[in-house]
Amino acid sequence: MSRSAFATIHLDALRHNLGRIRALAPRSRVMAVVKADGYGHGLERVARTLSGADAYGVAAIADGQRLRAAGIGHRIVVLSGIDEAGDLLEVRRLDLDIVVHHDHQLDLIAADRNPRPLRVWLKLDTGMHRLGFDPARTDALLARLRALPNVHPDIVLMSHFARSDEPLEAATPQQLARFASATAAPLAHSIANSAAIVHFPDARQDWVRAGGALYGLSVEQDRCGADDGFRPAMSLSSKLVAINRVAKGERVGYGGLYECPEDMAIGIVAIGYGDGYPRSAVTGTPVLLNGREAPIVGRVSMDLMMIDLRQHADATINDRVLLWGPELPVERIATSAGTISYELTCGITRRVLFLEDEG
Ligand SMILES: *Cc1c(COP(=O)(O)O)cnc(C)c1O
């Protein structure tokens, strides 16, 4: 069996989605968040396609190395910043911006004897309680940073939302208020991620930081990216490699989870959790076969999964099967698997062949 599972990346959808972000936040600069290999779409591919972004956001310095090696000259912001003194050498060599969220990082910068200014994004914790300083310390932190000769004076103040995908939730306006009152200093501000860009106009500040929406993804309950005008940037597909008749009362797959209610045709699709399709997807999760849905039956295995072909008498071996894409939102699969779309696109494994198309 040759390779059957393909992830096709729709480059024009990526560009469309950046345009949609710009339309929603016309006065903001846009950081394209490309961490986790561009949410699984391919770091260099995404960055090259989204050259219209004002900066890229990455999780780690190693991603900055990859982007510079690919010839990317944009601003690149390391969202978790530095961990040890040696990181500053790399940050300077690669000309990366760093997020500073902890006293430990401030101490490393203060101990650094290289006078070349570092570009710093000062991160406040306005309520998520993951990374960031207490906003009550903002003015003191700014004074300390400003006194350091190796820190660029154009500091960006940033924070991150915990619940911006819940438009009616009070937590987001509360975080916005804490962010607004942190300091009177005239600094560039950045707080909005994708869901906040869509739902909270007040969050569209000097910089917005778009991740999921660029890939056409939503994490909001019962919604998909397309509902907000974004286009899915990934299609995951494979093919039918066997069609079998299975008798009424027989059980299908590991654990015998599915019992055939009648004599029926079962199709075998060449994709499984070894490719990144979630093993937790339950019986009934749809795939698309010849333009129509067919439900998964039984447990997804490493290389293969089974589908119910009772409504697909015309199916033949080698038919293409779409697991998710513009015609079958990944958000539906994520819901069936008890997770979110981001985890699914991030989880595509190396044995899947990546293709690109302009559509
Ligand atoms: C991942 C991340 C983003 C992007 O979040 P989305 O919900 O994917 O838009 C923005 N800011 C920070 C700090 C992040 O870690």
Number of helices: 11
Radius of gyration: 23 Å
Approximate strand percentage: 15-25%
The name CATH uses for the topology of the largest domain is: TIM Barrel
Number of structural units classed as domains: 2
Net shape: elongated
DSSP E strands, number: 18
The pLDDT mean sits at 97
Walk me through what this model shows:
With 359 residues, this protein is of the alpha/beta class. It has two domains: 11-219, Alpha-Beta Barrel (TIM Barrel); 234-357, Lyase, Ornithine Decarboxylase, Chain A, domain 1. The longest helix is centred in the first third of the chain and has 14 residues, at 11-24. It is built from eleven helices and 18 strands. It has an eight-stranded parallel sheet with strand order 8-7-6-5-4-3-2-9. A six-stranded antiparallel beta barrel has the order 10-13-16-15-14-17. Strands 11-12 form a two-stranded antiparallel sheet. Strand 11 and strand 12 form a beta hairpin. It starts with 5 loop residues before the first strand and ends with a strand. It is elongated and about 75 Å long. Helix 4 runs parallel beside helix 5. The site of pyridoxal-5'-phosphate has 12 residues, from helix 9 and strand 9.
